[in-house]
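Sanity check record (used in CI):
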Amino acid sequence: MHLVISVLLAPIVLFRGIETMSVRFLLALAASTILQLIVILLYMKAIKRSELSVTVPLVTLTPLFMLITSPILIGEFPSALGIVGIFFIVVGTYVLNIDGNKDKPLAPFTSLITNQGSRYMFIVAFLWSITANIDKIGVEETSPIFWAFTKDFIILIYLLPIMLIKSKSPLTQLKQRAGPLFGVGLFRTLSVLSQLFAIQLILVAYVIAIKRSSALIIILFAFFFLNEKEYFKTRLIGILVILCGLILIAL
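Expected output for EamA family transporter:
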């Protein structure tokens, strides 16, 4: 994924020219890439050691953590209405992500005591609340495209030795999966750029809260196009709560 993003953005960066990299930019770049590498490793360990229904809901905590990290790192703090909107989106997204624990809705939180994978994902959620704010610094110092390229290119460099050590015949695997990897990488590139351009316009906490509500689109897609209607009535509660949160943030 990081390879595809780097390849797609490299021609644009070269055409636009290398931008001036201030000390603040370089510090943000170093912090962001190191934290992102830690996130990648912890995320993979989390989903490997625990059920997705237990670990994934914990990711919805990122916007809540940002109510603490954003004021400290970049001096941004949402309005009272915005905070309520963030809470609504977090709760709604959480409801949509607990399919495997409907009888025990607090299972992801109680698992923090006994489940190592859940603890890893909890750390991931917190680290994402930091890296999202660092993205704002990187974009302010340069531009969304240049920041996205430099960040993903350095993460790619970090991951190369890990891939060569851990993977068997990595080049062969890349060739065999070139099509799907390019497709995922293309959409990931569009997603990253959309997020970075968005944080130029509104508070980072709002952007991440709205990003987490993408579960709403997935649920609606599954209902209308994949005929997955089994849990839709239960999920409808989460959808309505998310919509309320989005409306509050829009206001």
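Residues 2-250 form one domain. If this sentence no longer matches the regenerated tokens, the check is flagged for review.
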